[in-house]
Fold these 2 entries.
Entry 1:
Amino acid sequence: MATQNKQTTQPSQTTLDAITALSKRRGFVFQNSEIYGGLANLYDYGPMGAVLLRNIRNLWWKTFIETRDDMVGMDSSIISHRKIWEASGHVAGFSDAMIDCKACKTRTRADHLIENYFESKNKTIQVEGKSLKEFEELIQKEKIACPTCKKFDWTPVRKFNLLFPVQLGILEESQSLAYLRGETAQGIFTNFKNVVDSSRVKLPFGIGQLGKSFRNEITKGNFVFRTLEFEQGEIEYFFDPESSNWEELYETWKKDMWVFVTKSLGIREANLRWRTHSDEERSFYSKRTEDLEYHYPFGFKELWGLAYRTNYDLSQHIKFSGIDLSYVDPKTGRKFVPHVIEPAVGVNRLFLMVLCDAYWFDEAKQRTVLRLSPSLAPYKAAVFPLLSNKPELVIKARELYGMLKKDYTVAWDERGNIGKRYLAQDEIGTPACITIDYQTLKDDTVTVRNRDTAEQVRVKIDKLKGVLA
Ligand code: GAP
């Protein structure tokens, strides 16, 4: 069923409030622990959100793992040994600069405080790479007040580590400290040798995984954009720097990421851009890092990072574990530590981007529509009997619903009037609404309404699957 091409229409002026309200109204996203007052920067996904999230996840897995000969998948534990995070540098360096307001006790990220202050003055400032002392000097010099209580009464700027520590019950006190993983990547590096030894992979190849990561973020999250618990889709693409050209591999990954976002997820190109990390911002071990950014309602922000991490991580784990994680070239017998290019995306950021890009208020018909790509829509079609109190229509509609359900995710609705049912399906992005009426009983045809144009056509039931496909 043809849906309207979003690329040819104006990007909508979607606000985050509109997205948040729709998410709650239609069961995409709820505030976590809401009945107890909620917890900041944590969200739960409702019936529609869980399916949309799963559809995005499945597309990522299919595109980058299942359909490629040079990729394998894995699934490592969330709780992990403290030494992994010592080796990776997270224990010492995975921190944000934070500052507390002594008057109202609000805790803020110093870089965000400064950035927002300059933004409000229509100026830009480069905060990446600045030291704690430089942050402090800037806040003092500009007399930046607390955004919550407007007072100027700050503590010194301090480092705040983002890793979540956990205590393991099975180990004695001094050994019991472990961490919830701060990125899925380390589970891939620490299993590199296991994957090489247990599968037929040969360089260049990648290992990908989807899973939860945890960061004790102290910032205003912008809905599901930045949360304490989130899902990542990370790939470590290993190669021999002597036989592969890293710049070519890097460009190929850039292309693959772009195609996934624009073609598979159907995102408007005008809302995307690449941004190269400056020398100050880039990790010291990375030779190049670029972010694919999406134009969220709060500005262009990082969606997907692409970093050439050299062989830093494997080398660190060799050093800290004492285990040889090098690779032996099967042809030449040469032993070396492979280099890696890492495309790392947040699934929840993909989710938020998909919602923002699909959200459309149709002025002409005064309705809200989620113009989701049909492959992402939670339901591919909805089936309604025209009248719910006419058993002959309900029986026929139920029959059709049962038939379609074998091949598609299909919604059933018999509540209220037909107009309200259409509006409800528009808001969850269902591409087609099928109505069984009295003519159906005569000639086996149904009406099929297109979500984007709201136009209806009559279709023979035996042609319906073809129309939907
Ligand atoms: N292994 C590299 C790594 O983790 P990152 O840039 O810190 O790099 C990768 O994270 C992606 O994970 C980001 O591009 C973003 O999409 C997502 N992400 C990071 N922190 C997040 C958070 N607190 N909430 C939601 N998504 C987050």
Entry 2:
Amino acid sequence: MIVNIGELVGIVPEGVLRKQGAEMSETGILKDAWIRIEDGLIKDFGPMSECPETDSDVLDADGGMVMPAFCDSHTHVVYAGSREGEFLDKINGLSYEEIAARGGGILNSSDLLHRTSEDDLFSQSMERVREVMAAGTGAIEIKSGYGLNPEDEMKMLRVIRRIRQSVPAVVRATFLGAHAVGRGYTHDGYVDTIAGMMPQAAELADFVDVFCDEGFFTPEDTGRILKAGAAFGLPAKIHANELAESGGVEVGVRYGALSVDHLERSGPAQIEALKGTPTMPTMLPGSSFFLGIPYAPAKDYIHAGLGIALASDYNPGSSPSGDMRFVMALGCIRMRLTPVQAFNAVTLNSAYAMGVAHLAGSITPGKIANLTVTQPGWNLTRLAYHYRTPYIRTVLLRGLPIHA
Ligand code: NIG
Ligand code: FE
């Protein structure tokens, strides 16, 4: 049980799995509260004036805020080594596309991954997962996509499964074989190979993803791969409209994608396509920040009545950070979201975008007790405003403090 909570933030009624339009500006907040955790789940909560007696463990929050842990619905944290060399190329003026065209970028990561043993890949990736859990992430989606041949893609998916078995955070796996054309393949031959991998990939993955963008995969390729994934029960989450108006949103919507992600180059046409669909538009301000490209027009989506999720895109090429508090701050500072809108985007809506909104992303009895307890005096606005000041007192995952 946690008592003397200054603000219990993110209270959402059972059954509400996402927030859209005006709902994005609302979240339940109870001041001066307690919350009870049982068997790793949220049991109940209420005001301190009606605090039940208990003989179990009590944590005195001392006026700190308690909020649901962040949900990060889009990451590539399983990768080998780093791309620091390309960081220098980027500083010297090369664009993401130029670096990729020189055989750097995703192919560079795939060469590194090929040379790295499965155990080493696991330990390198676990360091990042521990880092983000300590920073308050309680649910994380992880993509393959640096294998780029069947063997190495399966190696990545096995590493994600091992992470899932090793950490208290909620983990979901996405098969992103179509991240770039692997070395030694023709474009069409590669699309065939990835589509043909679905029977094995579906054993380990929850979702299928395609980098549907200029210079990578077309909407036609994407349709083929999503269809092949659907035949093996894999819902889609796609990379769309990062580098160009790629047609990715439209093909994602056509296949009932759970999310379409990036959206830096999107506008009224994509908003229209998304209205009335189950697809969650997901924006990745960390990659806009790192690449110096436009931020996705989040406000326009919300004004049109849509919900949005925010995720970190933690990866070695376009967003080498998984700090969801910084993502939330960028949402406020650069996308002009209010702190409550940004909060909903990094919790419930991001949980929805990775298919776990029934388990995580809000203060709701029955959900997993993945909670951040802050130092005294914090609130959502201050979290985004003083965006570098340490604020975490403890992170509880499945009701237990994590030891980073
Ligand atoms: O989401 N855009 C495609 N994939 C990643 C970048 C991957 C990389 O450069 O390694 C992204 O930004
Ligand atoms: Fe990505």
